[in-house]
Design brief:
Elements (H helix, E strand, L loop, with lengths): L9 E3 L13 E2 L6 H4 L2 H7 L8 H4 L2 H5 L7 E3 L1 H12 L4 H6 L1 H8 L3 E5 L4 E5 L4 E3 L2 E5 L5 E5 L4 E5 L3 E2 L3 H16 L6
């Protein structure tokens, strides 16, 4: 299978023939979303449209076929890592599609300040969270993807088990530890 950033399986709104490829989301605890529901801003954001925190609704054909950016991406980890890796490359497919100026704005902070949803100061590029030079985006159920310039790697962690980011943090720590020990760097 061709795994370029423009052909890898990522979609907002799944086509009918691909519905059987979508994994069912499963809460790993009954309280997986409680942290979001206790914060008024997060609660209001995540209850519009209705059903974003209801795994039964998220399993429906209606939701899977809906094109709703920011919360409706269907992808596998490899496809997301390929996307972020390509975005990091001056000669990447996405660099050619975006052009130098727009690509730079995608990789570097364009706005910063208090973020009510994240409940912390945040830096945002055009579409991505920028934290300590890393560019990426996390999902509320525990999935995340990013590019890290210092060690020069892209990573994605995708899960159907809804919880927090503790599992991702453990995997990322192990990967970064291994990369730090690798002879000759990452690439």
């Amino acid at each position: 299978m061709d795994r370029t950033p423009t052909t890898s399986p990522r979609t907002v709104g799944v086509e009918p023939d691909d519905l059987d490829r979508v994994a069912d989301l499963e809460p790993l605890t009954d309280a997986w979303a409680d942290g979001y529901l206790t914060d008024p801003f997060a609660r209001d954001a995540l209850l519009r449209p209705p059903g974003l925190l209801d795994p039964a609704y998220l399993r429906t054909e209606a939701w899977r076929r809906t094109s709703f950016p920011a919360v409706g991406l269907h992808a596998d980890a490899r496809s997301l890592a390929v996307l972020y890796d390509d975005l990091s490359r001056d000669d990447g497919v996405l660099a050619g599609l975006l052009g130098a100026d727009l690509r730079a704005k995608t990789l570097h902070t364009q706005a910063s300040g208090p973020d009510a949803f994240l409940r912390r100061d945040a830096e945002w590029s055009l579409g991505f969270d920028v934290e300590n030079g890393e560019v990426g985006m996390g999902g509320i159920g525990g999935s995340s993807a990013w590019w890290s310039p210092a060690p020069g790697y892209a990573m994605a962690y995708v899960t159907r088990g809804l919880l927090d980011h503790a599992r991702l943090d453990a995997v990322a720590t192990a990967v970064e530890q291994h990369l730090g020990e690798a002879v000759g760097g990452v690439r």
